[in-house]
Amino acid sequence: MELKILGPVEVRIGGRPVTVGGPRPRTLLALLIVEGNRVVSVDRLIDGLWGPSPPPAALATVHGYVARLRRAIDPGRPAGSEGSLLVTEPGGYRLRVDEEALDAARFERLTARARAASDAGDPSAAAELLEEALGLWRGPAFADVAYEEAIQQHVARLEELRRTAAEDRVEAYLALGRHREMVADAEQLVANHPLGEGPRAQLMRALYRAGRQVDALTGVPGVPRQVAGGAGPGPQSGAPGPGGRHPPPGSRPRMATAGACLRPG
Hints:
By secondary structure, this protein is mostly helical. 49% of the residues lie in helices and 8% in strands. The protein has helices at residues 23-34, 42-50, 58-73, 103-119, 123-134, 149-175, 179-192, 197-209, 213-218, 225-228; strands spanning 2-4, 10-13, 16-17, 39-41, 86-89, 92-95. The longest helix is centred in the middle third of the chain and has 27 residues, at 149-175. The chain is elongated and about 65 Å long.
């Protein structure tokens, strides 16, 4: 079973998508995924689905959603049998989640490997790993249930990881000298995160090293002039310093780090 949450919630069995149901059954599935391999109480499921005002038949409805989900992901397997993917536990339910099959877990592993490669001075490997990691995304996290309050904290966490990975990708390519290619990517990061200083500094460096010094100094509002050393991108930015010298290799900015993938630390 493959579980995908980096985009609309999706389950695949044997490579084929499984029909899960409407918004509430999909929200229930999302709640089980984010607590993968842990028991989620029926009370928590009810609260996640309806908030403080559940309908009178909420308990029976949850049981019905679970029964239909079980039939979808465990076709032909009797409920409670050994190896069941969706397990009934005292007071709740537990979804067996193989981290190898969860796209968000794979994304986090790839970004961790990319950070290690960057720390080891291998931006080429870091860039390749980050391309693979970002390629797992099919849209906003939990795209079809992101409006549900019970899911929003997980959406915010995953989107922050995605933003960090996108910045790290640009950083890796800048370290490889591919400044001209990264101008558009850095511009997109600035557009997506207009208050972030990191993307603005990256755009300034990309412009400067691509030969667009005037744009670097005047076209990126909000970048502190300290980054420019008062006259142009200085050693911290990866651009030439006084006398045209480049900073030593070990002085380039390190890739940002990020926390756990799904659940609050």
